[in-house]
Design brief:
3 helices, TATA-Binding Protein, about 25% helix, 5 strands, single chain, alpha+beta, 5-stranded mixed beta sheet
């Protein structure tokens, strides 16, 4: 299996695992969006959650992106990571070299001081 296909499969596996982690409150669902042609991979969250300091039955709609990963020029770009453990650490644990992972959610100046690729 070539490196690109390996990265695609690995990202899909890691993101799919995150959909199995239940939220501790509210009725929140996870959805994966995998675009293998454009190499864009997302975990979306949607549902309803309680409104703090309001009526016990009041809820608000939740809809957003929890994780966004792209493959650009052979590198894995983490554009958004709303997880506790971090997608980058899972990729490294799975054998992806740090110089192939870009923390896209950080500015280029901050990326210079990280162990990961700048771009």
């Amino acid at each position: 299996m070539d490196t690109l296909e390996h990265y695609r499969n690995l990202i899909c596996s890691i993101l799919s695992e995150h959909t199995k982690i239940p939220y501790s409150y509210g009725d929140i669902q996870h959805e994966t969006v995998f675009d293998r042609e454009q190499d864009r991979y997302l975990v979306m969250i949607l549902g309803r959650e309680p409104v703090p300091n309001f009526s016990p039955t009041a809820t608000r709609r939740v809809h957003g992106c929890l994780i966004h990963v792209d493959i650009i020029d052979g590198k894995i770009w983490i554009q958004r990571d709303g997880t506790e453990e971090g997608v980058a650490s899972l990729l490294v644990r799975a054998g992806v070299p740090k110089n192939r992972i870009v923390l896209g959610f950080r500015s280029e100046e901050l990326r210079k001081d990280s162990e990961f690729a700048i771009a």
